[in-house]
From TrEMBL:
Pfam family, one: Exo_endo_phos
InterPro entries, alphabetized: Endo/exonu/phosph_ase_sf, Endo/exonuclease/phosphatase, Sph/SMPD2-like
Compartments it resides in: Membrane
Alphabetically ordered keywords of this record: Hydrolase, Lipid metabolism, Magnesium, Membrane, Metal-binding, Sphingolipid metabolism, Transmembrane, Transmembrane helix
Domain Endonuclease/exonuclease/phosphatase: 9-296
Membrane topology listed for this record: Multi-pass membrane protein
Membrane-traversing stretches: 365-387, 393-415
Origin organism lineage: Eukaryota, Fungi, Dikarya, Basidiomycota, Agaricomycotina
Magnesium as UniProt keyword: yes
Protein's name according to its UniProt entry: Inositol phosphophingolipids phospholipase C
PANTHER family for this protein: PHOSPHODIESTERASE, PUTATIVE-RELATED, SPHINGOMYELINASE FAMILY MEMBER
């Protein structure tokens, strides 16, 4: 690609060992597709948990994406990887403070350690650019319950702070990944407002978030609304039980590419990023196979780098609408501001989760005490067992009680306290931030 453009791809690879169907074949196909096109400057992959899979992709794209980073987090790894055409000078990973509960083995978020990963690259035109890659907490959906949605809200707040801080340090920001949230939800509002990030899809499809009572066709949902998950066209989604939102809109837009300018006291001298193209990719089946590349489609965005003082011509077919042309001037370097209404809603959700967590922790600790009492009772009663064949049953029962009691102690005391503290930390942080906004607004009036 020319230096005046940045082509970015994000894709959730669904690459969990022993669990994801056709994992190895799909990873090979993804690597082959990337090596064949050679059109991307930045590639961010999620759910690439197996290191040998990362190595295969890295070797396949090394000719044009020579710089790469695989990130570690949690017990099973973050599943995040970034590939770059430009030199990487720094890397960082920040695990989210809340990632579900350890007892939720089926969900698995706690074990993989969902996180925000980033690299800093040196670009010949932009200088330092911080590239973020993330995968937010999965459970919760659009309808709650609130104690599940709260974890993703905490993820969104922590991610927004990282992206905002990068811009305040004078870097361009590009943020991509699987955010597990449709565009109109509170986590996406937090990310857009607090981090000041521009949604590349909305720049090129400005009306795709407009509510509609008409259900689009599966292809229209992809082309016009950016659906990347739960699409009937995807072989891993077809026939799967989907929620009401996915059924109504033929899928969900869960994958995003954001960008923003650095904070600067003199923004007029800086190059400006603008999205000239954004489309859903990897929608076809793996060549020679009967399955898709992943249970998600990929998202590609091309960001044009405009030199200072030069805006695109209104006759330029690359920028067909006034809203797109205006987007160049809205790339302010001023600090972004989240609304007080958004903060209030977040505080209510997190407080609700805090109350639920306290109640759950108390029940788990009560169950721990019950397990201890049953163990003592069983140990005393075992001395009067009249039949030897009862001993194996006693041993199995004792092992089960010991496991359950230990698990409830950890869940109720260690994890329960951790969750409550994390929630209260964010609530207090939001309250302080809200107070600062109100003071600043009062001074301006």
């Amino acid at each position: 690609m020319a230096e005046q453009e940045l082509s970015i791809l994000t894709l959730n690879c669904w690459g969990l060992k022993f669990v994801s169907k056709n994992r190895r074949d799909r990873v090979v196909a993804i690597a082959n597709e990337l090596s064949r096109t050679e059109e991307y400057d930045i590639v961010t992959l999620q759910e690439l948990w197996v290191y040998s899979d990362f190595e295969y992709v890295r070797e396949s794209v090394a000719s044009y994406l020579p710089y790469a980073k695989f990130f570690y987090s949690g017990a099973l790894g973050a599943g995040l990887a970034i590939f770059s055409r430009f030199p990487i000078i720094a890397t960082e990973i920040q695990p989210y403070s809340l990632n579900g509960a350890p007892i939720d083995v089926a969900g698995g978020d706690w074990f993989v350690g969902k996180a925000a990963a980033s690299v800093i690259i040196i670009h010949p035109e932009l200088g330092e650019v911080q590239i973020f890659n993330t995968h937010l907490y999965a459970k919760g959906g659009e309808d709650g319950p609130e104690h599940n949605r709260a974890h993703r809200l905490v993820n969104a707040w922590e991610f927004a702070k990282l992206a905002r801080r990068a811009a305040e340090l004078g870097r361009y920001v590009i943020a991509a990944g699987d955010f597990n949230s449709i565009p109109t939800t509170l986590p996406m509002t937090v990310i857009r407002e607090h981090a000041g990030l521009v949604d590349s899809w909305l720049v090129t499809h400005p009306f795709s978030n407009t509510p509609s009572d008409v259900t689009p066709s599966p292809q229209e949902a992809i082309d016009d609304f950016g659906v990347t998950a739960d699409s009937p066209i995807n072989t891993y989604s077809a026939g799967k039980g989907l929620d009401a939102t996915a059924r109504k809109f033929c899928g969900k837009r869960l994958d995003y590419i954001f960008y923003r300018q650095p904070h600067s006291s003199n923004p007029g001298i800086l190059p400006v990023l603008h999205c000239k193209e954004s489309r859903v990719v990897f929608t076809h089946e793996v060549p020679g196979k009967t399955f898709s590349f992943s249970d998600h489609f990929g998202l590609k965005s091309v960001l044009q780098i405009q030199t200072p003082g030069v805006l695109p011509s209104v006759n330029d077919t690359t920028f067909p609408s006034e809203s797109q042309t205006a987007a160049w001037s809205t790339q302010s370097s001023e600090p972004s501001k989240i609304s007080t209404a958004c903060i209030t809603t977040m505080v209510q959700a997190l407080t609700s989760c805090y109350r639920f967590s306290k109640t759950r922790a108390q029940k788990e600790l009560a169950l721990f005490v019950l397990c201890v009492m049953l163990l003592i009772t069983t140990a005393v009663a075992s001395t009067w067992f009249p039949y030897p064949w009862l001993n194996p049953i006693f041993i199995v029962f004792t092992v089960f009680l010991s496991w359950l009691g230990t698990t409830m102690l950890y869940e109720g005391f260690v994890y329960g306290q951790w969750e409550c503290n994390a929630l209260m930390n964010v609530v207090e942080e939001l309250e302080v931030f809200k107070h600062g906004l109100e003071l600043h607004s009062g001074r301006r009036r």
